[in-house]
Amino acid sequence: MDAGAVATSRIHARQLVDAESTASLSASGAHGVRAFLGLEADWRLLLDQIHSTNPFLCWEWVSEWAEHFWDERLVTVVVRRLGRPIAIAPFSPGRGLPLPGMHAPGLELMGPRRGGHGSMFEHAEAPVDPERAIPAFECILSWLATQQRWHWIDVGGWAQAGEWWRNAVQRFPETMNVVGEHVLPNPIVDLPSSWDLLLRGVGHQFRQNIRTEYNGLARNGLHLEYCEHREVEALDSLLDSLVRFHRERSQRTDREVHYNVFSDPQVESFIRRVSRRMMDGGTLTVASLSLNGEPAALRLQMEINGALYFYHSGFDQRFWKYGISTLVQVESMKAAIARGLSSVNLSLGAGAHTERWHPRTTQYERLQVVRNTRGSHAARAVYDRLRLWRRRVRTAAALGRRIADRIRTREAGP
Fold first, then answer.
1. Which residues in the chain show pLDDT less than 50?
2. DSSP state for residue 285 in the 8-state scheme
3. Bridge partners of residue 369, in order along the sequence
4. What phi-psi label fits residue 96: left (phi over 0), alpha (psi between -120 and 50 degrees) or beta?
């Protein structure tokens, strides 16, 4: 989009905001976890209204997140129009400056986002009526500006949500502005009516790779069986295998570094609890690919409003050469098409493993809104420098551990 088109779009957005400002929009705050959990009926009503395909907005997910990671400092802003909710935005306190004893008040939409938490809550955003998103976000910012103490607010969203927040902030040019942006690609495969049609849309080399991987299993006497588990009784055993596969992959020193999201016990505990609740609610399944009756690859999958979301996965390292992680994707795609689903979200990030499906790419944005005060901008400048320093230290430490692991492996010999 060229600069003129962007400017026209923003002018049109401001016109929409001005028109909507005459309607009866009101914002109110709910404080603490218990108050948020009391919004279940409003949350479900809004989610049904907007037909979201973001599985991280289902009540089972957000309420478990609330009970696991939020406390009484949580503030939830609810925007209503004619008594009905059109946006609900929970904000948790930011972690402040990344050194002990140094704090600068901040708020994170659907926080916390630091460490391994962001890799769990991939599409953290506020459910909002898309027809009234900009005025709704304007109401949220206005309420926070007068009711809360903060230097900056981290907000974000999927697809158009980033632009909605940006346009809302522009309504307060004297008091706040967007100073930090982080964009992640989000590849999505739109499903045709048959597997053959989908296969025709990918490259010749990828089609050949799939055939080679299936043939390799057959030549070595490995019988493949695919299953999607929906029974809670089998969940614990499946998650045990998934966590083990994930950990073993992270320990490989001869391959690209792979972060073990389950290394944090708090993260593993949350994933286990929320998986049970979402499976009970019919939103989550565990895709399992077995070889000769033994689990070889597992993936958590979430489904909402006809869209499938590929979540955390793991596979037995003994079967790496057979492309087992690709085959579980293939079998999941086939099953999704057979059930008439409309799309598969390959989750955040891009690379050869996603581009081979020739997906369309949307984006997920995180924006940082800072108050226009000297103190707020100074605090953010210090925060950015400290985060950069800490990131470099951690990167150097991780590199040192990796080199040490390789040295030990060579000294141990075959």
1. 1-20, 22
2. E
3. 153, 178
4. left
Q: What's the pLDDT at 3?
A: 42
CB burial of residue 396 (10 Å; 0-12, 13-18, 19+): exposed
Closest CA to 158 of 282, 48, 50: 50
The one-letter code for the residue type at 251 is Q
Q: Are the beta carbons of 47 and 304 closer than 8 angstroms? A: no
For 116, counting Cβ atoms within 10 Å of its Cβ (0-12 exposed, 13-18 middle, 19+ buried), the class is: middle
Q: Per the structure block, which two tokens stand in for 237?
A: 């055993």
Cα–Cα distance measured from residue 239 to residue 245, given in angstroms and rounded to the nearest whole number: 10
Tell me how far apart the alpha carbons of residues 160 and 143 are, in angstroms, rounded to a whole number.
22
Q: Are 39 and 30 in contact (CB under 8 A)?
A: yes
Q: What one-letter code names the amino acid at 61?
A: W
CB atoms within 10 A of CB 118: 15
> Residue 20 corresponds to which amino acid?
E
Q: What is the DSSP letter of 128?
A: B
Indicate if the alpha-carbon torsion angle 75, 80, 84, 85 is positive or negative. negative
260 contacts 247 by C-beta, under 8 angstroms: yes
**Continuous segment of H or E residues that includes residue 112:** none
Cis check: omega of the bond before 112, within 30 degrees of 0:
yes
- The type of residue at 59 is W
- Closest among 132, 36, 26, 166 to 90, alpha carbons compared: 36
Per-residue DSSP letters for 219-263?
HTT--EEEEEE--GGGHHHHHHHHHHHHHHHHT-SSS-----GGG
The proportion of the chain whose per-residue pLDDT surpasses 90, expressed as a percent, equals 64
Q: Which two tokens stand for residue 310?
A: 């590929």
Q: Which two tokens stand for residue 294?
A: 């033994």
User: What is the crossing angle of helices 59-69 and 40-50, to 10°?
Assistant: 140
For residue 311, give the amino acid letter: Y
Inter-residue contact 43 to 59 (CB < 8 Å) = yes
Q: Which of 347, 297, 287 is nearest to 322 (CA)?
A: 297
Q: How far apart are the first and last CA of the chain?
A: 56
Whole-number pLDDT of residue 379:
72
Q: By C-alpha distance, which of 176, 108, 174, 167 is closest to 138?
A: 167
Residue 196, judged by CB atoms within 10 A of its CB (0-12, 13-18, 19+), counts as exposed
Q: What is the pLDDT of residue 413?
A: 54
- Angle subtended at Cα 217 by Cα 211 and Cα 223, rounded to the nearest 5 degrees: 120
The rounded mean pLDDT for the chain is 86
